[in-house]
Amino acid sequence: LNDMGRIDPMYQFSLDAYIDLFNLSIEKSQRSHKLDERIANLNDYHTYALSLVLLKTPNQRFVSFSPCLLPHPSLYPDLSLFSLHPSLFPSTLPAPGEWEDGCNELQRMLIVRSLRQDRVAFCVAAFIINNLGSRFVEPPVLDMKAVVEDSTTKTPLIFVLSPGVDPTGALLQLAEASGMSRKFHALSLGQGQAPIATRMIKEGVKSGHWVFLANCHLCLSWMPQLDKLVEQLQVEEPHPDFRLWLSSSPHPDFPIAILQAGIKMTTEPPWGVKSNMKRLYQLVTESQFTRCARPVFYRKLLFALCFFHSILLERKKFLQLGWNIIYGFNDSDFQSLMSLYLDEYEEIPWEALKYLIAGVNYGGHVTDDFDRRLLTTYINDYFCEAAVTAPFFNHLPATEHPEVFGQHPNADIASQIAETRTLFDTLLSLQPQVTSGATAGAGAGPSRENKVSGRGGGGYSQRLCHVHFRTAYTIAVAVCLCLFLCLSEVSCLLRPPQAYPSLKPLASWTRDLCQRVEQFVRWAETAHPPTLFWLSGFTFPTGFLTAVLQSSARQHNVRPHTHTELVKSLDTPTHSRDGVFIRGLYLEGAGWDKKNSCLVEAKPMQLVCPIPTIHFKPVENRMYLCPCYYFPVRSGDGGRPSFVVGVDLKSGAVPFDHWIKRGTALLMSLDN
After folding, report:
1. What string of DSSP letters covers 391-405?
2. Which of 71, 129, 162, 564 is most exposed, with the fewest beta carbons within 10 Å of its own?
3. Which range has highest mean pLDDT (60-74, 89-103, 370-384, 606-620)?
4. Is 30 helix (H, G, I), strand (E, B) or coil?
């Protein structure tokens, strides 16, 4: 437990807190007259109780895994090692030949880790189920009433805040259900609130109040004083009804003593659409169900709103295929004046509801144009006449597939690989760091610096450039200084431009740099521009395309709107009078049908695919507008947007809304 603090600063446990948990396990575990059964029951109860303590804290995914729907191994025949790679559930397949009997469960997991990193989480979940039981992978519902019963007057109850979730509403409902609504006092900490908070705690200790201090991370200067107040609780005898509730975002300066003495609870939204919908329905009271004059329609629309809210939250797990920018949709967005509109109109005002929900409540968070387009697509699907006439699902699966979000099954791969890497990095951080004092000898070969420098383009010589341009540069500076003395300060501040955005490692980045240099060297050596442009080689491709668009628009006297036409082959390159030919783009979130030149579903395990040569030219017609990004981080980097241009592509046999939900986009460069 002490090592858990390395994962998150809010993971802090004291020996006294552990002893209290062990005593509680002795009290609540099943009793038996047989010593062996009693010890087994105690160990089983205490192990699960300890896991519940960890599951209430932040970063739950490091200590538990959501339940996975794993098919039974008997459904699959004996397959070879290579067939494990494309399988959806390789952890359930028997290992080939002698590997099946010679490998234990952990060693099989290592094989899956080498072939399919995206399926390691399923292997870990199966490992936990087989050794501890299925309840250890099921995220428990936070029962705040049980937390109060298990706590004492000397135990702070700490909410670790997550983006988009506010525990105040649930805490108010608990106070009302517990008969403490009149004795419940809440205060949002900030500048000048420290004396009020101190007085509230002292009065609550005497009178038995519930004191809730929100946003402790905004008042860190007062935290030492709060630490002393919590320490006094350990020696005093507070009123039996007194409880101290705290909420704070994770912060390394939060007092460790308070964390060790308290019960920590995370406010992270539950995993999965079904769990999120259950949580949202708990926020709706019975009076809200009955106050509407049209309860049947209201309940169906409420279901649609819950499903819509859950889809928006869970879509974040698909990373760049989910949202270009991660938004903090919260429970306050869920509160809609739907009943007011239903009561005042004979027919449901769909357009007004859509604008209220997607344009005001949720749309106020969205800043990216393509994310706003996705939000509009979802609201049009879920809020229509079918929402009140068609029957809804009676049962929702515990684990939803990507198709629920309009995504391809491949969309899970990237997020699961990222989750696996985070898991391994976290486990490595808990291991002792071992450093080696061995150094390379004199005959160890060239250094990495020399290897990297040797990969650079040999066409540029700093000394040669200095000789050729020194005279012209000196004259230009002298003339400028004569005209404007202040330019001397500006010349001192001149520097090379910042590196272009890229996620490539050093080796791939160096190769990419050499290709960029070669493109411009070939262009500089010819009298005409290239027939085929490598768009990814430009530092500012948006400016290049804008210049091409404006030039063609002036030539043909048309409105400057970009249209793209994909060329199937370019065996005999010719200069285009209209626009330019572009190569080197990658399609993410879809596949490409070369025969029909349209979008199709991606093949299994195909995350990106190269797209043929594209002809950019200005025309008036429109198709599916596919965004093109500089690199996989669609939100940009360092204040520089990643979006380059919108590319019109044929949507194929499905409507263009299908590809909006898929998050289909073009990429100029990859991360490898």
Report:
1. ---S---SS--GGGG
2. 71
3. 370-384
4. coil
Alpha carbon distance 317, 507 (integer Å) = 29
Residue 57 CA to its chain's centroid (Å): 19
Residue 19 has pLDDT above 90, yes or no: no
Residue 200 forms part of a structural domain:
yes
Which CATH number do you get for residue 547? 3.10.490.20
Closest to 258 (Cα-Cα) out of 506, 559, 12, 39: 12
590, 593, 599, 601 alpha-carbon torsion, rounded to 10°: -40
Structure token pair of residue 58: 């932040």
Q: pLDDT tens digit string along 476-530?
A: 767 666 766 666 666 665 554 566 777 788 788 888 888 888 888 888 888 788 8
* DSSP letter assigned to residue 216: G
Tell me the residue range of the domain where 359 lies. Answer: 273-396
Is-contact 180 269, C-beta < 8 A? no
Cα 254 to the center of its chain, rounded Å: 25
With 50 as the cut, is the pLDDT of residue 75 above it? no
305 in any annotated domain: yes
C-alpha distances out from residue 537 to 145, 544, 669, Å: 60, 11, 9
The span from the CA of 118 to the CA of 416, in Å, is 5
pTM over 0.70: no
What is the number of domains present in the chain?
4
By the 10 Å C-beta count (0-12 exposed, 13-18 middle, 19+ buried), 611 is classed as: buried
Residue 250 CA to residue 261 CA, distance in Å, equals 16
C-alpha dihedral, 283 to 289 to 293 to 295, nearest 10°: 120
Please check whether residues 195 and 263 belong to one and the same domain: yes
Cα–Cα distance, 576 to 616 (Å, whole number): 10
Do 155 and 42 belong to one domain? yes
- Average of pLDDT values for 355-382? 85
Q: Which residue has the tokens 């947007």?
A: 641
Query: 26 with 173, same domain?
Result: yes
Residues 6+ apart with CB under 8 A from 397: 69, 274
For tokens 């025309």, the residue is 619
84-130 per-position pLDDT tens digit: 455 555 555 666 667 767 778 788 888 888 877 877 877 888 888 88
Helix (H, G, I), strand (E, B) or coil at 97: coil
- Which 3 state secondary structure label does DSSP give 312? helix
Domain contains 251: yes
Q: What is the CATH number of the domain that holds 210?
A: 3.40.50.300
d(CA 563, CA 561): 7
What confidence score (pLDDT) does residue 140 get?
67
CATH of the domain at 365: 1.10.8.720
Last residue of a domain, one of 347, 371, 396: 396
242 closest CA partner among 153, 150, 148, 157 = 153
Q: Residue 600 pLDDT more than 90?
A: no
pLDDT of residue 246: 92
> Which one has a higher pLDDT value, 522 or 637?
522
